[in-house]
Amino acid sequence: MDGITIEDAPLDITHQYIKDLSFENPQSPRFIVEADATPEIGLHINAKSKPLGDRRFEVILLLEASARHNEEIVFLIELQYGGHVVIGDVDDEHIQPLLLIEAPRLLFPFARQILSDTVRNGGFPPLLLNPVDFMDIYAQGTVVANEDDQEKSD
Known about the structure:
The chain is α+β, with helices and mostly antiparallel strands. It is 33% helix and 38% strand. The protein has 3 helices and 4 strands. The chain has a 4-stranded antiparallel sheet. The longest helix has 27 residues, at 95-121. The mean pLDDT is 86.
């Protein structure tokens, strides 16, 4: 059989889990009843990884969303969604991009569903998120890290 087998895959997510989930609905039921209020949504997404040994890592996808209406908080939600990732036989320079681009890309649909369901269960319309460009987030993080390294060397 030709092609890549599971054993050859550069990345294997063996487990997925909610590491931390917080939902705050401080104005309920006021904003739930005021259906005509359209809140302003703020969103922050990031990813981080932690080595667990022997090419195993924990990748955490961080999603934070807030809804505000006339300077008042309508709801806040924070989710840390984790994955246990095993990296296959790849060169070391490819490990960070796999952990901070590819793994978050694979975890995101599950985290997005949890976020959407939690907001809906809080009495609001579901929070529908578009796909995320984790390569761009990684590049921005790399630029910041490189700038920090330059400042330390000056």
